[in-house]
Specification:
The protein is an alpha+beta fold. It contains 12 helices and 14 strands. The radius of gyration is 26 Å and the shape is elongated.
Amino acid sequence: MQLRYRYRLNPTPGQQAALARAFGCARVVYNDALAARMHAYRTGGSHLSDGELSKRLTQAKKTPERAWLAQVSSVVLQQALADLNTGYRNFFASVTGKRQGGKLGPPRFRSRKDNRQSIRFTRNARFVVTSGAKLRLPKVGDVAVRWSRDLPSDPSSVTVIKDAAGRYFASFVVEVNPQPLPPVDSEVGIDLGLTTFAVLSNGKTITSPRFLRHAERALRKAQKFLSRKDKGSANRAKARLRVARAHAKVGDARRDWLHKQSTMIIRDNQTVYVEDLCVKGLARTKLAKSVHDAGWGMFTRMLEEKAARYGRTFGKVDRWFPSTRMCCECGAVGQKKSLHVREWTCGCGAVHDRDRNAAINILAAGQAERLNACGAGVSLGFDRAAGVETGTRRERRRALVGISGL
């Protein structure tokens, strides 16, 4: 399996200028190729293949208007064309329904004012890690790297990234073998929330750190400082970096915390189930800031990736499954409950904590769905008739689908 290892770079001023030149050349090649494909489409011409675009790039280097493209590695320019081809391929796959997930639009022009700039070197570029632990990039030089850990194998490519805060990173793609952890007997269901980040079916709770909320005061001061600077001035550029660094600090803290929590859960449990939340839809509500601050999508993605790497099982439960309204004791599905209702009593007399009950139901639904997929025909063990008496016809149909695991 392929993994990415990212390290911080410390380029010299001269190397920063060389990287900026490479960023600009890759952007121009990308935009020229995009403009050519758009013109061919509008004029009804034939499709421009990658080979044709590569030939046009070679010819452009010989013209006075684009002669400066030869100042950077040719691999960087070819990879810019490859990125455009990937963008169109994903767009067409999304339009035809072959690509899962949200709909993607066609590629757009890149701007030199984008917050993130990047270039990619493959093995053809002959980048190497020198004996002095520096990264040698063609037509850039030996760049100092902060090696936080060793690379497990020789990288197949490296992407040099400059983020909005002005920091430089090297992202290596390496091939690693899965490292299965010793098997354990425990399985867990996870209910994600805002007040409490996660409640596990085994009773453990993870408090939400709310990184963005705690940094709002510093962010507000930095943004106010930026708004008082004249546009185009050097002081405004410095103030913009101050805002970007404050946001980068919040993002780094959140990412580090999510990595630690996901690693702990994967290490302690053989199977992990979560609810397939529609984060994009929740981000359009009045809870948008809290939803983005929680980082649910990043957390579930980390769980899935680490489960594949360490030999664990990861599964998602249908988002329409009534995990909150269903009693984990008798299986009865009640009415919808407001967010302020943290405890409720079922008709059978069981008193439930809202999040703990949902986590137990997610675990049971995930186990039933996995066994049904294997042909075992296992249900949740609840009385289906009692579980779907209440609610509208649409809610009862969704409950039946969620309970059966089909």
